[in-house]
Specification:
51% of the residues lie in helices and 11% in strands. It is built from 14 helices and 14 strands. The strands form four sheets. A six-stranded mixed β-sheet has the order 1-3-4-10-7-5, with helices on one face. A three-stranded antiparallel β-sheet has the order 2-12-13. Strands 6-14-11 form a three-stranded antiparallel β-sheet. 45% of the residues are buried.
Length: 391
Amino acid sequence: MLARKSLYTFSSADPTGFGHHIAAAAQEHPVYFDEGLGLPVVLRGADVVAALKDPVTFSNRAYDMGLMKGALVALEGEAHTRMRRLYNSFFAPRALARYEAQIVVPVVTQVVDRLAGKQRAELIDEFATAMPIGVISALFGLPAESIHENDALVRRMLHAIVRPGDAALVADGWVAYEEIAGQLREISAREIASPSDTLLGEVAKALIAEGMGTVADCERVVLTLILGSYETTIWMLAAVLAALLAHPEALRQVREEPALIPGAIDEAARWCGTSLGVVRCVEKDVKISGTDFAAGSFVFFSLTGLHYEAATYPNPGAYEVRRRSTPMIFGLGPHYCVGAPLARMEAKIGIKMLLARFPALRADPERTPVFSTAPRGAATFGPDSLHALLA
């Protein structure tokens, strides 16, 4: 019988506490039943990597039974390949270069301009959130206030998606979806009828060209983009800022050598890994670390423990900007997050411009963050606040 625990309700002033917590648990029980998640959980890194590379045995069909039915994340086989090809066109290098020049740089400039003249700032609200929402507002052609207003609904839906074993969260996710569904249909109908000069307009035109130009098809894509377009970026930015503020020497190195920024982002995503894990449906009877899983069952694969396995990352609690890290925050295998290039580009530009504008940026010693598995109600791991001195 599987050991029963609840590891995914965690809070600590130590940003490395959760990683060490999960890695230690993996040594004791590589597979266990999490009472909070309501699912069996696989913790050992080698098992997780092998499973995510094997979509035949471990599929994304779990998501096709909930809010994401018919969406990219829920598709497999040829249907997934076809839809992913469409999404890839939105995030191709040429498209990213255009987004960077026309949207990301101007938005980041506006965000850091609003910080100018301040002595202090709370960087989750004033930077890590303001920047991605500004980018998505410009990309989608939607008012930033509308995105802010829907933020709580988005987080409720994300909780339902990542915790399908929790009946209460799933039910609440559907309630949240019904509150936003009217807006999604209105946006989708407008774009299908007359595509705008925005990312959503490009989506509509691509769907029409693929013979999928219905409001329902467009609504699924719009929902996917809204759910995945800014929350991941917010918490990736929060992770790298938390890491740099906690390590003044690393902050100095990155400021003096901007070429270190991409590596600093990857290392922060490992050190303060924001993605808790992914759910998969078992398609055929299989054994993982001595535990039998029956076809049709669901399993949660942790993305945290691998970041803190000493065999992969010696001295894992240390934040080292020159370490070659390959964090799992965007997943692995055929369902690797299609929007990862945009999120990485945003983070790189944002951190570079913030550090250049505020050379005295440092942690506020009077206000230290608490790190948890549900910061501000988000379905992620990260700090509840990031108070910094700007001058």
